[in-house]
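Hey all, quick one. A colleague (J.T.) asked me to put the 4-fluoro-L-phenylalanine job into the tracker so the inputs and the structure tokens live in one place instead of scattered across chat threads. No bug as far as I know, just bookkeeping. Sequence used:
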Amino acid sequence: MATNRGQFNSRLGFVLAAAGSAVGLGNIWKFPFEVGAGGGAAFVVIYLAFCFLLCFPVMISEIAIGRKTQLNAVGAFKKLGHHNWAWIGLLGILAGVFILSFYNVVAGWAFGYFLQMVQGNFEIGENFGSYISEWESIGLYGLVFMGVTALIVSKGIQGGIEKAAKILMPTLFAMIIGLMIYAFTLENAMAGIEYYLVPDFSEITGEVIYSALGQAFFSLSLGMGALITYGSYVSRKQDIVRSAAMITLTDVSVAFLAGLMIFPLVAFLNSGDMSSVSGGPGLIFATLPGVFEGLGPTLGIVIGAAFFLLLSFAALTSTVSLLEVPVAYLVDEKKIKRPVAVWGMATLIFLLGIPSLLGNGAVEQLTSFMTLYRDGQEQMISFMDFVELIASDTFLPLGGTVIAIFTAYIWKKHNLNAELMEGRETDSQWMMKYINFAVMFFCPLILGAITIITILERFFGIQVF
Ligand code: PFF
């Protein structure tokens, strides 16, 4: 066993680091805009069902595979299966590299907005489109962000990742609650809450289902080996099922609370008219500065700056885990020294993010990059949308399907159960039974089917339903 790989110091350390990976731009930036694009509460209901019924068992499998093998995503599949299975890990690493390449650009927006708020520039919301086309400044913020990420990852597990998560996560939680309470006090807040919580099931289309699944995987950091990697640093004394439940609940709660914070703000800004809310990447960036402005110059600056700082913090604990996946691979499998792997990978991924950076208005060919299909309609998307759709809505659910199949039929159910029993703090059976059922039948079938249909509909315009 590779004892010098590092280990989380405590259960809390692991849960906070994994929850830190899960909680990120996905919860505060992406979740609300997906809810807006998916028609409100109906999306929320489907998303929650996916998180608990389909994603939770995949999360448990990932952590168990990681802890059993004490290896990175590629090494773990090789060890439990055979060399032939290394591709699942490689697919995951590829997905992680691509996700981090655009994620870092959005983290640059968040950090840039923080600096704008500090200066009291509330007009930035109206100028969101032109702001993100300024590739020089966003690129610089992205560079800073990647640098800080690399610095934390280079310090290893306990000194870097665990320490950062222990400080950042509780701060984040406190800030969200504070902003949510404030949002509730605003005029028309109820209209926003209603939009968010009262489902209209006629809004559900294939597209809503595919996006909800992709979002569930993205938000829980699943399907690409991040939790295999983090699982490899977990002690055998920890209860994996309980830890996974805590991670899932934390992530879902933060997304849920972020919605409760944002939709009342949006309703306040739109004077209670939610019919025009369409979601999209600009949702929080375009609307919130105007809300903060309404608070008056001093309070507006304080709350606005706090919000975007919070978003940057949330992004940081996620970028750390995204970078750790390829780094652990290079350190374990290719025997590259940690600092070299960290800085080399960070540089490569930053460079891979440049087309995403330029595809928000700076370069026309990357801004209108290609057409694909949504609910049968052709739609022009940018390079960044394309990477996001490929990596998060396609590779992650595909990875989840394959991980479930691998766990149940290659590694085998009894090995999974034996691993889960180590450190298990309760002997209640129903949860184990559900996990077995989900990994063997439910996840491969449902996840597999939705993933295939998503690919057919989105990329080939073949309407299955
Ligand atoms: N879960 C992160 C978020 O919601 O922002 C994004 C992410 C992090 C995805 C790590 C995948 C991953 F491995």
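Adding what we noticed when we looked at it: The radius of gyration is 21 Å. The pocket of 4-fluoro-L-phenylalanine is lined by residues 21-22, 24-27, 96, 99, 218-219, 221, 224, 226, 318, 321-322 (CB under 6 Å).
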